[in-house]
Design brief:
Pfam families: PBP_dimer_2, Transpeptidase
Structural class: alpha+beta
Number of helices: 19
CATH topology of the domain at 208-360 and 375-480: Beta-lactamase
Strand content: 15-25%
Distance between the termini: 97 Å
Organism: Streptomyces lavendulae subsp. lavendulae
InterPro entries: Beta-lactam/transpept, Beta-lactam/transpept-like, PBPA_dimer, PCN-bd_Tpept
Shape: elongated
CATH class of the domain at 208-360 and 375-480: Alpha Beta
Helix content: 25-40%
Domain Penicillin-binding protein transpeptidase: 154-476
CATH architecture of the domain at 208-360 and 375-480: 3-Layer(aba) Sandwich
Protein name: Penicillin-binding protein A
Strand order of the largest sheet: 2-1-7-11-12
Number of strands: 16
Length: 482
């Protein structure tokens, strides 16, 4: 009997020891991982237990928090002019997570970032007071862009070339993120997710598409940098009509063969002569074209800090000679976002230096102390000052004599480039209308890119100069006339 009791006692003791080891393991080694697990509802409850920090535009909060009547969540996110700023803020939802700046800086805004903790917070394990995110967005440029895009489906971006500060990011259609911030907003979520979620697409930053003739700026930059074009006013010797290399296919230009035969680079850019840029790309070859594109940001994920995912694209896979020629006019498999095209123009305006684009200037704690600063962004020379000057000269001709005339801003120097990009099989989808431009006046400068996907314009009238250039004009005027 005693032997049986002893065995039972030892067995029970071993069970207790195993339990103690397991508890110690869970608490000491797995505790933090379990606490941080995305499925731990306590974290979600804690995130909305107190008012959130704010995203700031021009010194004013464009976000807020309001008390809820629910049992789990003390507060929920609110937005000021939600549709206007949605591509920047994203949403902070109790049911559907966070996106854009709300997602990138979630821990700052909910107070869980360790940099926010005071000594007392650490001792008491109390959630710190939340911090704030200060953006580079200019309220006037943002509003002018948003208003100008009404009635059209498209997107636009504005950058200060000298600083890399993103002044505006606008998508249309947009949405009000305040509709989906609660725990029971399923109906609104389903409505916004309908039609493939177009309202919540961040087209300006995250939907690369064919850039059409705006990409000719990259082609011309590559040609000048590699010595293929030494003067923008010398005849190129490129004939029209023009047959795409390696094919029997004629490549027409909107201006007609007579106007594009053996023209200079300046005239080719003004008239958007496809023969010139297709031949330049063909002569340069894929590697040199790709190298120039990548210097300007293609094939690179850019953190603004919202990540451009997928990135803009110049094909890395080996192409045939006819495909390389087509990339020279922004077709085949070249894809770009409005942000990317604005970056190209910003580098040209800034003397060949590309300053890293960013939409956040500072991240601060609740007392305004700086935790992160982006006021000295990385700058890289992506083309020579001479190349940039030649491109500026040619772009001014587009804006004064070519299809970019609607972008003129009184009292300012403006240079631009139109673009119309084919879509679908045999161009069976209405083309994209693009326009990119720079403007400078009184020591201020701006680079913009506008892309229109759909409008009520007759297909024969779709073009970057007619649809997108007037929007660019309003964007530039809002900044230059301050």
């Amino acid at each position: 009997m005693n032997k049986t009791i002893r065995r039972a006692s030892v067995f029970c003791l071993l069970l207790v020891l195993a339990l103690l080891v397991r508890v110690t393991w869970v608490q000491a080694y797995q505790g933090q991982a379990l606490a941080d697990d995305k499925n731990n509802r306590r974290n979600l409850i804690g995130q909305y237990e107190n008012p959130l920090g704010n995203i700031i535009v021009g010194g004013q909060a464009i976000t807020g928090s309001t008390k809820t009547s629910g049992k789990d969540f003390g507060y929920k996110r609110t937005y000021v002019d939600g549709p206007l700023y949605a591509p920047i803020t994203g949403y902070s939802s109790q049911a559907y997570g966070t996106t854009m700046l709300e997602g990138v800086y979630k821990n700052i805004l909910n107070g869980s970032d360790t940099r926010l903790k005071t000594v007392m917070d650490t001792l008491t394990n109390k959630r710190a007071d939340p911090g704030n995110v200060l953006t580079t967005i200019d309220r006037d440029v943002q509003k002018a862009t948003y208003d100008a895009l009404q009635g059209k489906q498209g997107a636009a971006v504005a950058i200060d070339p000298a600083t890399g500060e993103i002044l505006a990011v606008v998508n249309n259609p947009s949405y009000d993120p305040g509709r989906i911030t609660g725990a029971n907003d399923e109906a609104a979520w389903k409505e916004l997710s309908a039609d493939q979620g177009k309202a919540m697409e961040n087209v300006a930053l995250r939907k690369p598409q064919a850039p059409g003739s705006t990409f000719k700026l990259v082609t011309l930059a590559a040609a000048i940098e590699n010595g293929l074009v030494t003067s923008i006013d010398a005849p190129t010797g490129i004939p029209a009509p023009y047959t795409i290399p390696g094919t029997r296919t004629n490549l027409p230009s909107e201006a007609g063969d007579a106007a594009c035969n053996n023209v200079s680079a300046r005239t080719a850019l003004k008239l958007s002569c496809n023969n010139v840029f297709a031949e330049l790309a063909s002569k340069l070859g894929q590697d040199k074209m790709r190298a120039t594109a990548e210097k300007l940001g293609f094939n690179v994920q850019i953190d603004t800090p919202v990540r451009t995912n997928p990135p803009s694209k110049y094909p890395a896979k080996k192409m045939s000679i006819d495909q390389v020629a087509q990339t020279g006019i922004g077709q085949f498999d070249v894809q770009a976002t409005p942000l990317q095209i604005a970056m190209v123009t910003a580098a040209i305006e800034n003397g060949g230096k590309l300053v890293a684009p960013h939409m956040v200037s500072e991240v601060t704690d609740s007392d305004g102390n700086t935790l992160e600063s982006f006021k000295n962004p990385k700058s890289q020379e992506v083309m020579s000052a001479k190349t940039a000057s030649m491109l500026q000269d040619a772009m001014r001709t587009v804006a004064t004599e070519g299809g970019g005339k609607p972008a003129q801003v009184a009292g300012a120097e403006v240079g631009g480039k139109t673009g119309t990009a084919q879509r679908g099989v045999n161009n069976n989808i209405p083309p994209l209308a693009w326009f990119t431009s720079y403007g400078k006046s009184g020591g201020k400068q701006i680079a913009v890119a506008v892309m229109i996907e759909n409008s009520d314009t007759d297909r024969s009238e779709i073009g970057g100069g007619k649809l997108a250039a007037p929007i660019a004009q309003k964007m530039m005027a809002a900044w230059l006339k301050k």
